[in-house]
Amino acid sequence: MRKNNNQSYNQKNNEFNSRRTAKNAAKPTRRPANKKPAAPVEEAAVEEQTDFVIGKHASLETLKTSDAKKINKIFLQDGLKADFVHDVVKLAKEKRLIIQNVPKNKLDLLSDRQNHQGIILAIAPFEYASVDDIFAKAKAQEEEPFILILDNLEDPHNLGSIMRTADAVGVHGIIIPKHRAVGLTSTVAKTSTGAIEHIPVARVTNLTQEIKKLKDRGLWIFGTDMAGTDYRKWDAKGPIGLIIGNEGKGLSPIVKKEVDQTLTIPMVGHVQSLNASVAAGVLMYQAYNSRQPLV
């Protein structure tokens, strides 16, 4: 009896296909090229709706203030042996906050590779004050208002540095525009080394109109200009608003029209401009000298 070749072939083919299917099933599935694994939905949603306080000084300052209630979670680097870890753990326990130990690469990702020093706080989005809040702070301290106005400042490091100096000299608050300017971010918080917790920041839709309102409330408005009065002659007593211009363009023309007096910082070197935060610091300390003279 002759074998049925077709039947024999089909049987072998089926056996081969079965073996190949079993072999492929045993292989690990390859991840498609250039695709990162998606973060868990819950974790991604939390991080998307969260701001971060980055670094040792800013984190400790936040933990010590009433703003600690805004903290959702403390991310601490695995195996961190830094001196401040004991303080963080103690404060977290007192305030019943969650500490999550994570690998360094997780902190690198959350901080966009900033120098996080092994700690990041996940907090509710930064809150802005109102202009009335700033006036209320001055009144509570029984002082004439000293308000800083930032005209389209763009660099978060400059804003953070300015906030740090503003806190040091007793500025009651800062006003910034909502559009075309840097707002409160984790970079600002880190650079301010905690000053963000003490300086109210109001964000307004129309900066020019707000300056007019400040003048109606009795403030004298000062701004910077190369052709202005030497800042060393500036008498900053009384209710004042000091405007610091954009890093590259200075004061915008429409804002400059509202200034009562312009000030200049004389320079005798080859470079004829200062970083915005440096210029702001020089002027703020002149105001401090005028308002708090030596006795």
Structural class of the secondary elements? alpha/beta
The CATH topology label of the largest domain is Alpha/beta knot
DSSP helical segment count? 11
The low-confidence parts are 1-10, 20-49
- Kindly report how far apart the N and C termini lie: 125 Å
Number of domains: 2
* Name of the CATH superfamily of the largest domain: SPOUT methyltransferase, trefoil knot domain
Major sheet size, sense and barrel closure:
6 strands, parallel
Count of individual beta strands = 10
The overall pLDDT, averaged over residues, is 85
- Described by the principal axes of the CA atoms, the overall outline is elongated
Helix content: 25-40%
If strands are numbered along the chain, what order do they take across the biggest sheet?
A: 7-6-5-9-8-10
Per DSSP, what share of the residues sits in E-state strands of 2 or more residues?
A: 15-25%
CATH class of the largest domain: Alpha Beta
- What Rg, in angstroms, do the CA atoms define? 29 Å
From N to C, what is the helix and strand string? HHEHEHEHEHEHEHEHEEHEH
What CATH architecture label of the largest domain applies?
A: 3-Layer(aba) Sandwich
Description:
Residues 1-44 are annotated as: Disordered. This protein is an alpha/beta fold. The protein folds into two domains: 47-123, Ribosomal protein L30/S12 (60s Ribosomal Protein L30, Chain: A); 131-291, SPOUT methyltransferase, trefoil knot domain (Alpha/beta knot, 3-Layer(aba) Sandwich). Helices cover 40% and strands 18% of the residues. It has eleven helices and ten strands. The protein has helices spanning 5-26, 41-48, 56-64, 84-94, 104-110, 131-140, 156-169, 186-191, 207-216, 253-256, 276-291, and strands spanning 51-54, 71-77, 99-102, 119-123, 146-150, 173-177, 201-204, 220-230, 240-244, 261-264. It has a six-stranded parallel β-sheet with strand order 7-6-5-9-8-10, sandwiched between helices. Strands 1-4-2-3 form a four-stranded mixed β-sheet. The longest helix has 22 residues, at 5-26. The protein is elongated, with a radius of gyration of 29 Å. Residues 1-10 and 20-49 have low confidence and may be disordered.
